[in-house]
Amino acid sequence: MIQREAVLPMNIELILPQHETRGWHLLLLSRIRASGHAVGVKTVSAPRTPHLLEGLLRFEQRILLRRPSPMLVRQAIASERLDAPPDLRIDVSGTAQFGEVPVLAIKDGRSEPLVEAAMSLARGDLPSVQLTLDGTPIGIAHPMVDNRFVLTRGLEDVLARTISLLMKGIVVCQASVSRSRKPPTSLPISRASSASLALLVHYTTHMIPRLAKEAYRRCTSRTHAHWCVGYRFLDGPGVAETHDLSGPAWTRIADDGHRFFADPFPLEHQGRFYIFVEEYEHAKGKGVISVSEVTPDGRATPPRQILEEDYHLSYPNVFRSGGDIWMLPEGGSSKSLVLYRATDFPFGWERHETLIADRELADPTLVEHNGRLWLFAAERDGAGSAADMMSVFFADDLHGRWTPHPANPIVIDRAGARPGGNIVLSGQRLLLPLQDGTETYGGGLQLGEIICLTEELVELGPAVPVRPEGNWPFPKIHTLNRAGRLEVIDGIVP
Predict the structure, then answer these.
(1) Of 267, 282, 376, 483, which has the fewest CB atoms closer than 10 Å, so is most exposed?
(2) Is pLDDT of 276 > 80?
(3) Alpha-carbon 77 to chain mean position
(4) What is the pTM assigned to this prediction?
(5) pLDDT per position as a tens digit, 333-363
(6) 189 half-sphere exposure, CB direction, 13 A CA radius
(7) What is the band of 175 on the pLDDT scale with cuts at 50, 70, 90?
(8) Per-residue buried b or exposed e for 225-249, using 16+ beta carbons within 10 Å of the residue's own CB
(9) Burial environment of residue 476 by CB neighbours within 10 A (0 to 12, 13 to 18, 19 or more)
(10) Could you write out the three-class secondary structure of the chain?
């Protein structure tokens, strides 16, 4: 099991909007305390949430969701004084004042994150969250919004990553804390009198049509998406080199319509080729791991189930190490990353050990670099999407102690945080397939170069999209892998 690195505690004053404290503020407070810092709470006078927005949120929670939102529900948070002067202030009231004590805030400190995000979502945009220190930008997050037709659900995703970004900012600020600051400067409160009218127009013209479309889809379809797996044999450059799907024809692994196959991982063993996949039966609503063999004449045998747990399994990352064949599938809902060993390849597998516990990781992807093993994964820290926050871990060997990278989360980005296949060595370059959720979950794939990978720094270069050009009829892909001559992808069936 990994051990979290110790963090030097600080005295932090959390500034909240009076009469507007909600569940996400309470979650932020609990996260800061759990990190070992001493926290004081101060509430200040701030603009109220527009009545129209409050009404829309109540309507959605009562009628559409039929539950209160844990992030948006109002919470009474009592003021608390620190026993010592603060080293850092975190101001989410929208009324930030800068002075001798450094102030961490969202955007320019003059906007309440909830209202800003609601306006953006209502007009059909995907919000970005900018983190500032004394008004100077120091970081940005591009949250994934899994649900884009219910405002409440979208806000939950954005506010969850707002908390994640603030927690990252605390770590950054520890090296920047200074007592020598400019005299306090009061910033004006932004009060847009037309905010309610604009919100109404955007909600009516963007959010309601999307909601109606989703209601129709649920009445006519069993599931949100039906995936399929494609494969081909080729010599020479593949998708990772050409950045498109052209070349030899793709063949689809057949399904019966009652289940889909996704997340393909190929492996060549003793001259035979296998494709490991997630098998998802719509009626059961849970993924298992299955395997198909591609015969010499190019046909794929019907996938056979080989691994099932009480929780959802996917992303069957299969590989060789130390003379054995291993599998590291995703089991994020179990909050553990479990390694399996092949006992009778390809059908027999045993649970070997838990590599990382107490963390909700998605799509774990391994690479050996400079004498160490590195693991990339998307992480969900208890709230929000599982597709927009990248964490990295490292170990001396597969069975050693896995250490979280001190720069985690590496990025918060719906277009470049969740792995989509094994890391490709292209010449001297390490290319990491990344899922692009800008359009929708599974809406596209990019290849990002790993520029630097050390214990102190993880740096990713600009990602290059995989173009849908070619004879694969399903351009929305989110997994790419190759083993020797066998290349595999998946795609959403319209």
Answers:
(1) 282
(2) yes
(3) 29
(4) 0.91
(5) 999 999 999 999 999 999 999 999 999 999 9
(6) 13
(7) low
(8) bbbbbbbbeeeeebbbeebebebee
(9) buried
(10) CCCCCCCCCCEEEEEEECCCCEHHHHHHHHHHHHCCCEEEEEEECCCCCCHHHHHHHHHHHHHHCCCCCCCCCECCCCCECCCCCCCEEEECCCCCEECCCCEEEECCCCCCHHHHHHHHHHCCCCCCEEEEECCEEEEEEECCCCCCCCHHHHHHHHHHHHHHHHHHHHHHHCCCCCCCCCCCEECCCCCCCCHHHHHHHHHHHHHHHHHHHHHHHHHHCCCCCEEEEEEEECCCCCHHHHCEECCCCCEECCCCCCEEEEEEEEEEECCEEEEEEEEEECCCCEEEEEEEEECCCCCECCCEEEECCCCCCEEEEEEEECCEEEEEEECHHHCEEEEEEEEECCCEEEEEEEEEECCEEEEEEEEEECCEEEEEEEEECCCCCCCCEEEEEEECCCCCCCEECCCCCCEEECCCCEECCCCEEECCEEEEEEECCCCCCCCCEEEEEEEEECCCCEEEEEEEECEEEECCCCCCCCCEEEECCEEEEEEEEC
Q: Above 60 in pLDDT, residue 181? A: no
Q: CA-CA-CA-CA torsion for 35, 36, 38, 44, nearest 10 degrees?
A: 10
| Strands 259-269 and 136-141, bridge-based pairing | unpaired
The pLDDT tens digits for 145-162 are: 999 999 999 999 999 999
pLDDT digits (tens, 9 = 90+) for 377-396: 999 999 999 999 999 999 99
